[in-house]
Every structure is written in structure tokens, then in C-alpha cells.
Amino acid sequence: MPKFDAEQARFNMVEQQIRPWEILDQKVLDLMSSVPREHFVPKDYYMQAFTGVNIPLTHGQMMMSPVVEARLLQSLMISPDDTVLEIGTGSGYLTALLAKAAKFVDSIDIYKDFVWDAKYKLNSLNIKNVSFEIGNAIDNWNYDTSYDLIVFTGGLTKLDPEFKQRLNIGGSLFAIIGQEPIMQAHIINRITETNFESETLFETSLPLLLGQATTSFEF
């Protein structure tokens, strides 16, 4: 059996999956090419690290497919001066991508093993501009800090309006909202103190973040 070539697989992922899905931002393509995705997938799924599927994690969660991760990054138009709130650390791969593109990332997850594993993996890659916290940001929103970008890495049935208020003016929020099997990815931009714009990007499906009710969705 031929030896698995991670570098070639990563190149194929970018050129054959990501670029054809209208992801042409070179900064995003470079990010996806530079961060070792295989470092973050569960051991049993190592050979599927670069395939175009959601990869199962423990606790019933999923690692987004590469094209969704890339589309997310492109929609946020991340600046090196941006501060980011990531709700749902998960595997830590998206955390690493965000941290490589932004100034600083606060990442929170309710599962301590996700947080510990992600912290270890990012440290091993010398990614230091991330603060990790164990907690439930969905039900206990008790932060006074505002952010340039807010990212939800799991599904929502609805978006608490309080999260939009945590955006700095000019900031953006990414969320996948709805109910499986069909959910929609949204980008919400804060234009002024009271004015927000929302755009539906694409359809996808992810497990709900813990604490989400199975009610009709809204944002």
C-alpha cells in the first residue's frame, strides 16, 4: 500500500475541493495549505483528514468539512488586527486557522477534553495568541468584552440577539442556523450601533451546539 502523503493530500484538498467552491481569497488558500489539518482529526479518521466530509468528534460533535471552514474564513475577511470569539473549540483546527489570521482568539467549549486537546495541539504548533475557556457560552453569556468577529462552530436553532451586540462596529458574526438536515450558514455584519446586515451564504448541516432547543429558528 502506498504511503499516505499528507502534503499532496493537502494540496489536492485546496486545489480540487476548496478553490472550485468559489473560494479565491489567496490568504484563505494559504491558511488552509499551511495549517496541518491531519494534526487535529481523531486518530481513527487520519486518512480522511482532507476529504470533503464532516468528521465525527466525541460528544456527538463534528469537524466541519474543509470547504465549509474555508468559506467561513473567506466570509469573515479577517484582518491581522481582529479579535475573535470562537464558540465551540471542537477539534481546535478552526481555532488554529483563526489565530493564524487574526490578532487574538478567545475560544470557549463546554467539553474540557476538547479544550485541553486543542490547547496542547496549538502549543505544539507554536500558536500562542489564543485564550481557552471551559464553559457554556450559549446559556451563560456573561462577557463584557466586544469582538471584531464571532464564530459559532456548531449549529444553532436561533441566535440570541445579545451576541450581535457583542460585535464591534464593522464586525462580523458567522453562524449556521436551522434544523437538521437542512441548515443555512449566515454572515451578520454590524454596520452602525443599531444597523445590522445579514446574508445567507449556503446550505449545510451540523450538530447543534449543546444547550440549543429544538424550536423554530430565527436570527
Can you characterise this structure?
By secondary structure, the protein is of the alpha/beta class. It has a domain at 54-204: Rossmann fold (3-Layer(aba) Sandwich), CATH 3.40.50. It is 27% helix and 28% strand. The protein has 6 helices and 9 strands. It has helices at 6-18, 26-34, 66-76, 93-101, 112-124, 161-165; strands at residues 55-56, 62-63, 83-87, 104-109, 130-134, 147-156, 167-179, 182-190, 196-204. The strands form 2 sheets. Strands 5-4-3-6-7-8-9 form a 7-stranded mixed beta sheet. A hairpin with a 5-residue loop joins strand 8 (182-190) and strand 9. It is globular, with a radius of gyration of 16 Å. The relative contact order is 0.13.
How does the SSE layout of this entry go?
Elements lengths: L5 H13 L7 H9 L20 E2 L5 E2 L2 H11 L6 E5 L5 H9 L2 E6 L2 H13 L5 E5 L12 E10 L4 H5 L1 E13 L2 E9 L5 E9 L15
CATH class of the domain at 54-204: Alpha Beta
Give the ordered list of helices and strands. HHEEHEHEHEEHEEE
Distance between the termini: 50 Å
Number of helix segments?
Answer: 6
Rg is 16 Å
**Shape call:** globular
Average of pLDDT: 90
Measured by DSSP, the beta-strand proportion falls in 25-35%
Q: Residue ranges: pLDDT <50 for 5 or more in a row?
A: 213-219
Q: At the fourth CATH level, what is the homologous superfamily of the domain at 54-204? A: Vaccinia Virus protein VP39
Count of DSSP strands: 9
Please state the structural category.
Answer: alpha/beta
**Proportion in helices:** 25-40%
CATH fold-level topology of the domain at 54-204: Rossmann fold
Please summarize the sheet with the most strands.
7 strands, mixed
Strand order of the largest sheet: 5-4-3-6-7-8-9
CATH architecture of the domain at 54-204: 3-Layer(aba) Sandwich
